[in-house]
Amino acid sequence: MPQTNIRRYLRHGMLPQLSVFETVARLESFTRASEVLHLSQPTISTQIKKLSETLDVPLFEQIGKKIYLTPAGECLNQSCHEIFRQLSKLEDDLANLRSLESGKLKLGVSTTGKYFVLRLIAKFIEKYPNAKIQVQAHNRQNLIHRLEDNDDDLYLFSNPPAEIELVKQALLENPMCVLARNDHPLANQKSIAFESLKSELFIMREPGSGTRIVAQEVFDQYGITPKVRIELSTNEAIKQAIIAGLGISILSKHTLGMNAHSQEIIELNVTGFPIMREWQFVYPVGKVLPPIAAAFLKFCQQDAAFICAKNEAPE
Ligand code: PGA
């Protein structure tokens, strides 16, 4: 909003002068205003005089012993009420933002992190029942875009971006496993060599997901080009595809937590697996965390391992 035509209102002392003016107008008396504001009567008169000079209009007129607002004074009085009402609303809004209980926590979580983050949230809400929480679940790449746009307070990654300066708080381990249907020929075999999976058909997460990055790293490490039967953009769809017999997949073990199908899906005993990654809450360096986000981080630091342990997939 251009401020060229309101320069006179931006002068030092304008708000206190408006407050004096509003009090005199309301009480219709310089003497009573001086009592209420604990200021001397000459100070009140000087403030009103300065205000009148700044605005270049007379504000009061005195007839006999009584003072009256001039038309300009009436106009200013109305605006004063609006200004003070707005300031009071601003103070309420800021008080809400300062307050832990009434703030809104905005979490960006990876599509895999959402499997256990809701447990954390449920426990957090037990402690802070008025907390409002918004969760945005996206794959790693889209979560990075949100982070770059400063859309959320905290972000849950397993593979946070290295190119952005971040404050990080480790949450818990993220075991990446080879998952198959329970009737897979290798289901009961121990210490399966990863190389022996090269003839298997794989179900892969989409490019841009953190899960895909980890899977690709393993294939690269063994110099294997996976036979990708199908590429799917959600862990849930991948689990359904495993059950449907479309192939096997490298996924976080957390995707099995609390899942009705988990008995139909098993973890193959592949040498070198699970590959241990780590869930981390991160936020950009320089971000000022709202009180509720700081409280959530602290809560996670103390209780995450315990709460999420209950979400482990059955052995
Ligand atoms: P994903 O996320 O859901 O994109 O696989 C895992 C991660 O945070 O890297």
Question: Which key features would you list for this structure?
Answer:
rod-shaped; 315 residues; D-Maltodextrin-Binding Protein, domain 2; 3 domains; Arc Repressor Mutant, subunit A; disordered C terminus; 41% helix; two-stranded antiparallel sheet; alpha/beta; 9 helices; 11 strands; binds 2-phosphoglycolic acid
Instruction: Provide the list of bound ligands, each named once.
Output: 2-phosphoglycolic acid
> What is the β-strand count?
11
**pLDDT average, as an integer?**
91
Shape: rod-shaped
Tally the structural domains: 3
* CATH topology value of the largest domain: D-Maltodextrin-Binding Protein, domain 2
CATH domain class of the largest domain: Alpha Beta
For the CA atoms, what is the radius of gyration? Answer: 32 Å
Spans of at least 5 consecutive residues with low confidence:
311-315
Counting H and I runs of at least 4 residues, what is the number of helices?
Answer: 9
Strand content bin: 15-25%
- What is the architecture of the largest domain at the second tier of CATH? 3-Layer(aba) Sandwich
**Share of residues in helices:** 40-55%
How far is the first residue's CA from the last residue's CA?
Answer: 62 Å
Q: Structural class, please?
A: alpha/beta
CATH homologous superfamily grouping of the largest domain: Periplasmic binding protein-like II
The string of secondary-structure elements, in order, is HHHEEHEHEHEEEHEHEEEH
Outline the biggest β-sheet.
Answer: 7 strands, mixed
